[in-house]
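Hi U.,

Before I forget, here's the chain from the pilot set. I'm dumping it here mostly so it's searchable later in email.
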Amino acid sequence: MPLLQPKLNLKIAQRQILTPGLMQMVSVLALNKIELREMIDAEMVENPVLEEIDESVPMPDEVTKREEILERSAADEVAPPKDVFSEIDFGSYFQEYLDPGYRTQPEYEESDKPSFENFLSQPTTLTDHLEWQLGALKLDSWLREAAEFIVGNLDDGGYLATSEEELAAAYASMPPDQSAPELAKALDRIRHAIELVQHLDPAGVGARDLRECLLIQVAAQQQEFGHLYGKQDEEPAENPHRGFRAEAEAKIEERRRAMEVAALIVDRHLHLLQKRDLKDLARAAQVTPEEAHLAVEFIRTLDPRPGRQYNREQTRLIEPDVFFVKRGGEWVVSMNEENLPSLRLSQRYRRMLASTDTDKEVKDYVKERFRSAMQLMRNIAQRKSTILKTCEVIVRRQQDFLDKGVEALRPMMIKEVAEEIGVHPSTISRAVANKYAHTPQGVLELRFFFSEGSNGPEGADTTLLVLKRKVRKLIEEEDPRHPLTDDQLAALLRSHGIQLTRRTVAKYREDMNIPSTHQRRKRD
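Structure:
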């Protein structure tokens, strides 16, 4: 049996290691203007070596030099004679001895001024709106607690996606200090709380599915309609406005009937609404086509996601990173560096490094901070250079788009721009990520200019965006009673010189969330 012996083996291998500086360069390149400004502000707080250049405000070093010059010039001049009256503080004299009223010392006063943040309005969320309504109701403590638990489990659309059993189990397992009940009692409380929440505004919240959501809204409008038109005064024997009243009553009855049929359709035949076939819907609901039409029009007024009117996404602030400007007949690119801090290295810390009185630990710390600051400034300059080179290629290839509009947009791939600049495609991908350009056609994301194309018979390329726009335009101009099939759309595009297959047209249509031919057909 051979003995185990140690051996030395040489192996050559290549490995790519990301240094901290390289990692920072990659992350800085992917930042847009707003994110870069926030990152620079954070770095200036952490790194005392970094300073912001503000030409309107002199730097501390400049102030010190000016003070030294002024002191030397003042020492050379003869001091003028002092005025004894200039040393008397007449304002303090009159305040101390001639003011008969009560006065508090300013140094002991505390001015409790509200923060300006308190004046900023915050949007009301669905949870805030529902909890405010619960606070205005006189409820038992257990019902209020269970209702708040239900409100906390609603999604952004106002739906209750969790089953009653799961809610009851979670409610029963709450901490003991909240007097958690047993499972059976918890299930009963959860059901009462769900019923309470479903009667709050907006109508439809707390529903488990679309059917229940729409039924709650129909019932709420029926109840409101009954309160408004439920009681009718007796008509006198001779009424000169009898004709107008009869017409109004007919409209009221028509509206009431539409609500009844809508409730029936939502409850039993909701799946038939997608087919948009009024005859089949009227036959299934056993009503006339006119009644089915009025009911469908009433259902269109309902909100399938009642919670979204409160849970709206916050408006995203966009600042263009570059400007595409035409100067002297040529398109040029300029960086938008407004409100971006201009950085420099502190002169005071440089003197600390040159001084022999500075401790070694302090010098090591300052050197490390200097290296970090210089690396950041190089990465910011590299980011600017990469974005400018990328945008110059975009402007050179998309001049027709800048002059004429979207229809003149040319296909352009990230790989092509990377090869022209001489960098990796991932670098271009980071350089255009979440960044915007101000153009004559509006503020557009830089990724907007990169799109695949489809070759026509004459070799003219058409971008994916333009192709989708053409498909949507053909569908918008079609006859609703005889909508175009995917084969017909492909044939029309081929007649315009664009070679697309039926499957490609179907894929574009699905990407734009356009229904199929059968679903688009409008039937009488």
